[in-house]
Amino acid sequence: MTRHGPEQTHGPEQTVGSEQTTGSEQTAAPARAAAVELRGVTKTYGAGHAEVRALRGVDLEIGSGEFVVLLGPSGSGKTTLLNLVGGIESPTSGQVVAAGHDLSGLGEDARTAYRRDTVGFVFQFFNLVPSLTALENVRLVAELTGRGDRERSAAALAAVGLDGRGGHFPAQLSGGEQQRVAIARAVAKDPALLLCDEPTGALDLETGRGVLRVLQDLNREGRTVLVVTHNAAIAALAHRVVRMRSGRVVEVATTAAPGTADEVAW
Ligand SMILES: Nc1ncnc2c1ncn2[C@@H]1O[C@H](COP(=O)(O)OP(=O)(O)OP(=O)(O)O)[C@@H](O)[C@H]1O
Ligand SMILES: [Mg+2]
Fold this sequence. Notes:
With 266 residues, this protein is an alpha/beta fold.
């Protein structure tokens, strides 16, 4: 379930991309091949008096194997951006290219296949099926991609430190353990892109750290990870931090020496 590649493997001590922190940079081009590219992306919900301009022209590149944290106040468009990259929604205008697919040009079936095969999602409230065990929850989603064999799913649980807990139901697991099951579920299908919306939002510091540790490990194996959060402390782990405000990217900062989950505090 690992995705090793010479172009994707890098340690936390390396910086990614050549751009430096600036106050209001709109575009940042990482040195490595782009996993995600947004060009002039807008998203408007509703019409007339009910119109909400959630994204007002976003240009952003995320390199393959990067760990990017997206910060911004409530309503600034973070989840909207994540949903566009994940193929859950389509932009009103502009272009979203992810893992080699121009999402704007995909039909419904191809978009479904992209979501199923290429993207792993982790949400704030784990969304596990309560009547299925941890292992069954992982297998359920992995089966959609033809990767639902027991061994692979058990290995995904082991990778998030839940060896031996596969037979437990969600109600028998702590919040942090449930979130790790959700991460195992997302990675068992070996997605190129891991998209996380407030993955530690419902967790205390210590359990949150455990989850961040897993995300960082998965990134070190070569996966591209995009984490949306309110929590500025998590930004210390990222190769780059993208700040949004009112539907725009207002700052992209490269982290010279990303920290580890154990150093994070909030
Ligand atoms: N389906 C929708 N219909 C109408 N408006 C929406 C919809 N989804 C999001 N919005 C609006 O778009 C704006 C951006 O929402 P978004 O969920 O992307 O913000 P966010 O940065 O993720 O906020 P939070 O940190 O609170 O999760 C908000 O004003 C929100 O109300
Ligand atoms: Mg949100």
